[in-house]
Amino acid sequence: MQKSPMTAQGLKRLEDELRQLKTEGRPAVIRAIAEARAHGDLSENAEYHAARERQSFIEGRVMELEGLISTAQVIDPSSLSGDRVQFGATVELVDEETDQERTYQIVGEHEADIKQGRLSVSSPLAKALIGKEVGDSVSVPAPGGDRTYEILKVTYR
């Protein structure tokens, strides 16, 4: 079984979601199914079918989260150091065309959230950054043409 690299915070978020689904989501959907059943004829009961669909989603997500958690390989970025980009690094970049600066932390696939500055290790940008160091430029294919970024700073927190 292949391990999935993940930060401790990413693992905690997955565990919190799993706990919430098991302690709140499941009981709520069971109550909704029981309430819908009490309304009578199930073949034309939209509430019942919606609750069953929700139950199916919750059970699927619980199984997915349990699988992700069981294969997680937690990597602590604060134990790493250096100027070379690797998993867990927080990287400050500047777009060489627009001079716009951005900061990303390279994290596991299942904890990525670009709006929060968490970049998936399997994304094209992260793949281009891995192994590079401060001062290097990387070119990344983008829908509007290749983008070039310069690495300004690499930190591990």
From TrEMBL:
It comes from Oecophyllibacter saccharovorans. Residues 5-74 form the Transcription elongation factor GreA/GreB N-terminal domain. Belongs to the GreA/GreB family. GO terms for molecular function: DNA binding; RNA polymerase binding; translation elongation factor activity. Transmembrane segments: none annotated. GO terms for biological process: DNA-templated transcription elongation; regulation of DNA-templated transcription elongation. Necessary for efficient RNA polymerase transcription elongation past template-encoded arresting sites. The arresting sites in DNA have the property of trapping a certain fraction of elongating RNA polymerases that pass through, resulting in locked ternary complexes. Cleavage of the nascent transcript by cleavage factors such as GreA or GreB allows the resumption of elongation from the new 3'terminus. GreA releases sequences of 2 to 3 nucleotides. Residues 82-156 form the Transcription elongation factor GreA/GreB C-terminal domain. The gene is greA. Pfam families: GreA_GreB (PF01272), GreA_GreB_N (PF03449). The lineage of its organism: Bacteria, Pseudomonadati, Pseudomonadota, Alphaproteobacteria, Acetobacterales. Keywords: DNA-binding, Elongation factor, Protein biosynthesis, Transcription, Transcription regulation. This is Transcription elongation factor GreA.
